[in-house]
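INTERNAL AUDIT FORM
Audit reference: QA-55
Scope: verify that the stored structure record matches its stored sequence.
Auditor: D.O.
Record contents follow.
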Amino acid sequence: MPAVARLLPRLSARQLGIGSAVVTVLVWTAFILVARASAARSLTPFDLALARICGASVVLVPWGAWLVARERRRHPGRPAGSLFGLSPLTLRVTALAGVFGGLLYALLAYCGFFYAPASHASVLMPGSLPLWTTLLAAVVLRDRITPARATGLALIVAGDLLVGGRSLLHAFEGGDVWKGDLLFMSAAFCWACYSVTARRHALDAVRATIAVTVFALVTYVPVYTLLVAGGWVVSRLGSAPGGEIVFQMVFQGLGSVVISGITFTRMIQYFGPVRSTMITALVPGLSAFGAVLLLDEPMHWTLLAGLVLVTGGILFGVRRATGGVPPPSAATPLPRGCDA
């Protein structure tokens, strides 16, 4: 019996839950810091997205093919899966979830890191995610926004305006940080669309993650290849160190997509959605201070105040609310980085 198999039965549900929470918070925090650090190195945002998709596909595509094959054996003659038998979901749901959760989120987030610092991403991506998710759920799912949740959202908006407003003022001086801020908030909006889609269709965590990855693989990779070959998109994969490419595939794909998706699911199972959201509210603060310590980014008072408001808004809205939109879960597999 493998060592891992001998170890797991000895872990209690509490130990697995706490361990999963620690891993999730660390991966989500590291996603923001690593993505910003990568922007100063060899690869372009499109290269990073490719590394993320290919890294996750190594594990998730065979997994998806196995799930579809098993379903077809159990129910012969019944339609099962899509996209050449690799996605366990229908084509319509796979495409809808894949566009928002697989393609747009990753591209917008990675592009944002080439304009704005990680400290801004720390506030604007995790911070605006509850805002977008609640508003979309109110429109699409007819969820009610309670007064307590509205107060929490108001705090989040105030925090986002403090951080983003400063960069918008500098835009008149020729700064580009505001572009990154808008990209971060757009990425969070796309992840919120994916979250609401996952909830509306009651998607299973693993199957949703697999479907999103398969859709990104069969759509993004061919288009990326054609655009690079035609000279419309610049790729630095040929000149980048091999170690950097492998690292990005492992961290962005296996870490941010596969591992954090599984650990977040396990955290939800043990702590529940409300307590899990309170735990992941640590991510903005940890990643913001990590950016100051590890990336030498400045900590302006507006950033610190925005961070306090956003974190307080998340905690207040979650602790006071008894229902409504759950946080992005493995049915909504990653923020993350939010949407890691």
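Auditor finding: record pair retrieved intact. Residues 14-320 form one domain.
Action required: none
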